[in-house]
Design brief:
single chain; about 80 residues; mainly alpha; 3 helices; about 90% helix
Length: about 80
Amino acid sequence: MHRSFGSILGRVAAIVGALLCVGVVLRLIVAILQPVLPDLLWRSLTAGWELLYGVISPAVPAVIAVGVLCAIGWVILGNRR
């Protein structure tokens, strides 16, 4: 079965839209929690997120590269069927 370019473009747009919605929700959660939490707890949470980001950030380019290669393979194998 041949997939049209519009179908693939629609899926890509849906994924980008979902990621944008997740980003907006995370920003809203931060905006809600920042004035409510005590300063010490907020600084601890910020330090924890910075530590997590520092540990994960060196691996992000490799993970993205593997994801791109898998997506290319998925598109190629999907078009052959």
